[in-house]
Structures are given as structure tokens and as C-alpha cells.
Amino acid sequence: MFETLKPQPADTILTLMAKYREDPRDTKIDLGVGVYKDATGLTPVMRAVKSAEYTLWEQQDSKSYVGLAGDPAFGDAMVKLVLADSVERNNVAAAATPGGTGAIRQAFELIQMARPEARVFVSNPTWPNHISMLKYLDMEMVPYSYFDDETRGVDFDGMMADLKGVKAGDVVLLHGCCHNPTGANLNPSQWDEVIAHLKSTGATPMIDIAYQGFGEGLEQDAMATRKVAAAMPETIIATSCSKNFGIYRERTGMLIVVSHDTSAKSLNQATLAYLNRQNFSFPPDHGARLVTMILNDDALRADWMAEVEGIRTSLLDLRGQLASELQRLSGSDRFGFLAEHRGMFSRLGATPEQVEKLRVDAGIYMVGDSRMNIAGLNAKSIPILAKAIIDAGI
Description:
The protein has about 400 residues and is an alpha/beta fold. About 45% of the residues lie in helices and about 15% in strands. The chain has 14 helices and 11 strands.
């Protein structure tokens, strides 16, 4: 039977990283893989995570299964982190998933189960795996304008024009903060316009919030998601602990479904558990338990929040340094958008040919659409990157 299989497209980032590993140059720079790195290039284990793991190692007395939706305490902790008091807990169903990617996949399957004919509107560009999963599930996808290649900011007029095509029963996928891959984000008044439009059309918002804490701060980064959840009759939210807890390999995420019809919670919760059962039965627990311990312990939580804030400010510092160096070399402020973007990523606005020139000439590796991981930089590599950008004619 396997002779009928067809080769699948190679993963762009994995292919890029294979080339990076084979590059012998000492000055090569990895701006491709979307993980946080400190100034030494390490993705460290956070202090609070280490402390929680030690306590867990000492105290845990069983590795038996937890519920199909994961530990309820994890659900409570994550709903509180993402939504705070913006909605009543009785209106929220939640299920643990294998990472934020698992939450998104479960969300798409939930949509498909609830309304098979639903169209999913996605920003252009968006995280490539959004598109890959929708295609795999054979769900209708409609792109909407988002990024302005000239200003490197949000094309809000184009976005709203495209969202005029949204109808009742459609789903609009939004990035809660730190838009991936562009780093360009909606401002509060733009969020208000989006919410008003969605309410008038009867569409359902789905929010992917994978970088809470890396943009403007833990509370500020959740404000848009909270506004949407409070205003809309129903909201789907996929959240990840990979980035802000640094537990990428523990695959820790959560799918949250908000319905202001309180009577719907029981059915929603049972449906999330059912979907988990069909896909992987019980979700992984180790990372979820660590997150729960950290969020429910005042000292661990304070230490974790301080470290997340340190990561956030380090990203802002790197952005400012790169923008300043490019301004010095170019004699213009055309790269000022780098300091305005938020999160780990920025889309440089280079052509694929210019991106390839950066790789060949300077050993600088970024995705072909010119998304670069700001966390891959440090004080030593910023001047190298800035000179290469100017030399490439970007």
C-alpha cells in the first residue's frame, strides 16, 4: 500500500537549518528557527521551571493518566492567565493539548465538526502551519490582507476591506499579539473596529496567542484577546506555553472555548475531551503540571514574571540596536519599523533573491519571506547583519 504515497513538501525551516549546520563560516547567523535564544545562543531552562521540576521530582508519586482534557487545575491557571476576569469561568471550556500547535489543530477540527461549511479567514501572511493544517483538513481558507510591504506595518484598510466578505458561520483567525511572521500588530482602536465588524457579521473569532509576555507585557499582550472574548458571543483561543515558559519540548498548550451561553459549557467541554480522545487520548502532563505549579505559587510566579519581562526587554533592546545601526549605515530611518514591531519576529520586507544573497554572501539564514527571529541576534552579530542588509540592497 505504501507505494501510493507521494513525497510531501520539505519543511522550509528544517531545510534552512540543515544548510545552516553545514555552513562552515564562524560568522554565520541563525535567524530562522522560531525559538528564544539568549545572548550566548542558548535556549535556557527558566529558573522557575527548574525549581518547579525539582519540587515535582521530590513530591510526585504517580505517572498515571490525568483526564482527557488534562488536569483541571492547569485549565483554571491558563484561563486565568489568558482571560483574567474578562469572562465568567463558567462560560469557558478548556482542554490541554500537545503544544500550541495541538491546540490549533484541535480548534480546526472543532470548527469542522460544528460547521463543516465554515470558511477560515487567515492573515496574509500568517504562520505557515496554519495554512498547512487547513489544507490537510480540506477546509476552505480565505486570505485577508495584513502586512504592508512598503511601510512594514499593518495594512488595516486592506484587512477591513477583505473582511467585508466574512459571513455568519465563518471563522476569522487572528494573532492575539506578536504577529508571526511580521511582528506588526493591531493597535487598540483597530481591535475595536475588528470586534465591531465581527459582531455585525456573526462570524466567530479564533485567536492564536503564542507569545504572551514577549510584546508589551503579560497583561498588555492579553488585552486584545480579553476584549474579543468579552464582546463576542463565542471565541476560540489557542494558547502555548512553549515560549513564555521556555518548555518547547514538553509540548504544553491549551484550547479554550468561550461561550456566553452558560448552558453551552458542558457540551463544549465534553466535545473538547472527545476530540482529545480521538487524536491522542490523554494530553501530556509534565509541562502542564510545571506551569500550574508556577502560576499557583506566589514566589515562583514572581520569579517567572521577572524572567519573562527580562526576555521582553532584551528583545526590545535588540530591535533598537539593529534599527539604530541600520539608520547609521543607511542614513535614513526606513528601518525604524524594526523598533516598532513586537515579539520575536520581524518581516524585513526583502525579496527571496535578497534573502538568498544574505545567506550566500554573509551566512545569514532567515526564511525566504524575510521573516527573521530577533532573538537570534546579539551585540556581536547586529553589526554583521546590518552591513549585510545594506550590501544586499534591501
